[in-house]
């Protein structure tokens, strides 16, 4: 029995030492990554977040649709593939500069996603140790993951270690605007043209009725609003153009949700009335040409609503 106890504690001690060493190596490497990847993009965000005047948060539809080079003020696009409102909330927890403009992209179907559990918000757990506000966010919103990470320091790097080691030696850097335009190839254009011609319906995709606001979505929108109010920032939620449409009931329900919270919401889903396929990469993502046109319209809308104090261009 005594030997078993000694073996157990010896194994535990060995694991804890190994865990600390591995975490230290990975953490030091991760902080030096600035290439076009999720990790590099986050490092660039942390580097510029308290100096820029405008931040764009959201999914790939934020990343590829809003050209922050055209804002006339220092701006950074931290949109990322597959990210949703909980991830945006985690990012917003780190903001400290007063008076920023914070633009958060949202899709209509995400507002009503009853299966949404906010797990995308855990993606920044590996940064919690170096940011007190982010640490508090995880302690409150993801307590299980937070306390596991306190015991097993390498836990937040689960699924990231190989990417970090792979990208550590790459010297490329994230572009200063964060915006990533899409330039469809001729093959991609032809494939999408065929898909578009054959597709029967793109109405209310992923939306079921009767409409009911997702509790998780509501929770994280409220958190983002709280951080914006605390920083005296101008908060705008917006939906960029898409060929996947929603009906009037959905438009109205989403608009009313934000109106009831006193949040400016710009619904631009139907901005492109014609079906010029050169503006698109696929049903939900604009090409660089489409993004350039849409960004100009977005800037004009922001100026019209008093969010921007300078003329759009």
Automatic annotation (TrEMBL):
<dbReference type="InterPro" id="IPR036514">
    <property type="entry name" value="SGNH_hydro_sf"/>
</dbReference>
<protein>
    <recommendedName>
        <fullName>DUF1574 domain-containing protein</fullName>
    </recommendedName>
</protein>
């Amino acid at each position: 029995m005594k030997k078993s106890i000694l073996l157990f504690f010896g194994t535990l001690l060995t694991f804890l030492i190994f865990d600390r060493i591995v975490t230290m190596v990975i953490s030091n490497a991760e902080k030096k990554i600035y290439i076009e990847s999720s990790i590099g993009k986050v490092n660039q965000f942390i580097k510029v977040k308290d100096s820029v005047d405008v931040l764009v948060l959201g999914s790939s539809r934020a990343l590829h649709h809003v050209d922050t080079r055209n804002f006339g003020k220092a701006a950074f696009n931290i949109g990322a593939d597959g990210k949703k409102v909980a991830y945006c909330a985690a990012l917003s927890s780190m903001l400290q500069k007063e008076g920023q403009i914070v633009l958060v992209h949202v899709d209509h179907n995400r507002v009503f996603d009853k299966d949404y559990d906010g797990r995308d918000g855990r993606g920044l757990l590996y940064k919690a140790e170096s940011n007190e506000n982010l640490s508090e966010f995880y302690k409150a919103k993801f307590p299980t993951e937070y306390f596991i990470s306190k015991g097993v320091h390498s836990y937040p790097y689960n699924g990231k270690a190989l990417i970090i080691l792979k990208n550590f030696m790459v010297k490329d850097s994230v572009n200063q605007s964060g915006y990533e335009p899409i330039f469809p190839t001729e093959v991609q254009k032809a494939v999408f043209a065929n898909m578009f011609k054959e597709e029967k319906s793109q109405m209310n995709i992923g939306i079921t009725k009767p409409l009911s606001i997702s509790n998780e979505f509501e929770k994280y929108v409220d958190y983002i609003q709280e951080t914006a109010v605390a920083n005296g920032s101008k908060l705008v939620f917006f939906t960029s153009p898409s060929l996947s449409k929603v009906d009037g009931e959905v438009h109205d329900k989403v608009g009313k949700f934000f109106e009831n919270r006193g949040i400016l919401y710009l619904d631009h889903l139907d901005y492109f009335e014609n079906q010029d396929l050169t503006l698109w990469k696929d049903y939900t993502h604009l090409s660089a040409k489409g993004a350039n046109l849409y960004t100009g319209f977005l800037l004009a809308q922001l100026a019209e609503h008093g969010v921007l104090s300078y003329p759009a261009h």
